[in-house]
Every structure is written in structure tokens, then in C-alpha cells.
Amino acid sequence: MSEAIQRLQYLMTCLRDKDFGCAWDKKQTYQTIAPYTLEEAYEVIDAIERADFDDLKDELGDLLFQVIFYSQIAREDDKFDFDDVVNGIVAKMLRRHPHIFPQGELDRFGEPSNLSESDISAQWQAIKEQEKASKPKQGVLDDVPSAMPSMMQAVKLQQKAAKFGFDWQDISPVFAKIREELDELEEAIQLGEQGHIAEEMGDVLFAMTNLARHLKVSPDIALNKTNTKFRRRFARIETLLVAQNRKLTDCSLAELDRYWEQAKSEGL
């Protein structure tokens, strides 16, 4: 174990010390820090999208700290420790890369592999299925975490079902399904029943997520990029209004639209 990791583990031990530790850190549980883990993962992605490598370094440190935090709590509960986490992932990667480590040992390389990327992906999936076979029987979709962000979860559910042939082979029916769901949403809106509207809205989003999957586009990342673009253009509208000593509330929708088009024409 590197000295840097040992220092981080010792820091975590100090923070959780019953007598001298931090009051906040001591009271945390797996459940209470889980939302922070998700937040840190998104901040890593944000730094990557911005190509801010100083920030990426910091955010990766924050994410690593989450792993150390969980491992410390588990060690206190006599469940596992950080070494178990590391040894587990090393063993898994050795097992899932037999074309690189045919002996299943880290210090024993095989011959250079001629497998294509698609061959490697198929091999990976086959090994995962073998691993699942040794575990208690589950439904096909049971290992998709229900706490996963909704769009990501939708993609995972669709991918799982697709492995068993429950999928369209080309994109045309996907567009047809989106149009069908939009029609049903419009009907629900006309009826004015809020619960039905929410259900049909969910169906539309699920269908759109399915389209993204067929296009090999991450809906989360695509939407995040659009969010960033929206922030950028709206900030430009605010800047233009400040230069004119005006406020957003002074403008009609038509005026705001004109400023938006200006921001768009500026390449923002």
C-alpha cells in the first residue's frame, strides 16, 4: 500500500475516532454519505467535460475519500476494509481480462492479444454471466440499482432486456414509439388528471432515453451539455441587460427571445 493511501486511511481513522474525532464525521453512516458520493461522481464528470484537470485532480480526491469513508465504517463494523476493496477489484479485473492475464496472476502476462474490441466485450459479458451464475438466482433486471439516477437506470434496464431480444433492431420504431407516447401525453393533458400526466411524461422520457441508447449517446451527458449551454446563453442575456441598465423582469418574452438569439449567434 502506498504511503499516500496510508496517510489518507490514517486521516479517516482520526476523523472517526470516538474520543477525539470530528463530530460530523463520527455520526455518518453508509446511508448518510451516499448522496455525497453521487454528488462527487457528477463533479468528476463536470471537471472532465470542462477539461479542467486541476479541478479533476481535486474531484478525484473527493471521490476517493468517499471510498475510504465507506471502508472505514465497514472496518469498524467488522464487514471489510480498504485492502479488501482493492484486492476484490484486482481479482475481478484479472478474472475478466484472461486475454491479458491467462494465468489469472498480475505478474504473469500472456502473449499479445489479437482479440478485437467486440470480442473483448463479448468475453467480458460472458465472464459476468458466469459470475452471476454462482450467486443466488435473480430476475434479469434485479441487479440494476433502483437508486441509480433515473435516466441511467432506464438505459441499464433497456440494455438488460435487449440481451434477451426485447428490443427494436432499427431506429424507426423508436421514433414511432416516441410519437405514440407524445400523443398519449397530450391526451392526458387534455383530461387534466395530474397523476396520469406524470405517468405519460415518464413514458415519453423513457422512450427518449431508448432513442439515446440506440444512437449510442449517454442521455445524462447529452442533457448535461445542454444544461451547460443554457446556463451560458442565459448568463449572456443577463450581461446584455446589465449593460443596458435593465432587469430580466423588465423584459417581455419576445425581448428575451431576441437576446437569446443574439447569444446563440455569438456561438454561445
From TrEMBL:
<dbReference type="GO" id="GO:0046047">
    <property type="term" value="P:TTP catabolic process"/>
</dbReference>
<feature type="domain" description="NTP pyrophosphohydrolase MazG-like">
    <location>
        <begin position="28"/>
        <end position="101"/>
    </location>
</feature>
<dbReference type="GO" id="GO:0046061">
    <property type="term" value="P:dATP catabolic process"/>
</dbReference>
<feature type="domain" description="NTP pyrophosphohydrolase MazG-like">
    <location>
        <begin position="176"/>
        <end position="233"/>
    </location>
</feature>
<dbReference type="InterPro" id="IPR048015">
    <property type="entry name" value="NTP-PPase_MazG-like_N"/>
</dbReference>
<dbReference type="Pfam" id="PF03819">
    <property type="entry name" value="MazG"/>
</dbReference>
<dbReference type="GO" id="GO:0046052">
    <property type="term" value="P:UTP catabolic process"/>
</dbReference>
<dbReference type="InterPro" id="IPR048011">
    <property type="entry name" value="NTP-PPase_MazG-like_C"/>
</dbReference>
<dbReference type="GO" id="GO:0006950">
    <property type="term" value="P:response to stress"/>
</dbReference>
<dbReference type="GO" id="GO:0047693">
    <property type="term" value="F:ATP diphosphatase activity"/>
</dbReference>
<dbReference type="GO" id="GO:0046081">
    <property type="term" value="P:dUTP catabolic process"/>
</dbReference>
<dbReference type="InterPro" id="IPR004518">
    <property type="entry name" value="MazG-like_dom"/>
</dbReference>
<comment type="similarity">
    <text>Belongs to the nucleoside triphosphate pyrophosphohydrolase family.</text>
</comment>
<dbReference type="InterPro" id="IPR011551">
    <property type="entry name" value="NTP_PyrPHydrolase_MazG"/>
</dbReference>
<dbReference type="GO" id="GO:0046076">
    <property type="term" value="P:dTTP catabolic process"/>
</dbReference>
<protein>
    <recommendedName>
        <fullName>Nucleoside triphosphate pyrophosphohydrolase</fullName>
        <ecNumber>3.6.1.8</ecNumber>
    </recommendedName>
</protein>
<dbReference type="GO" id="GO:0006203">
    <property type="term" value="P:dGTP catabolic process"/>
</dbReference>
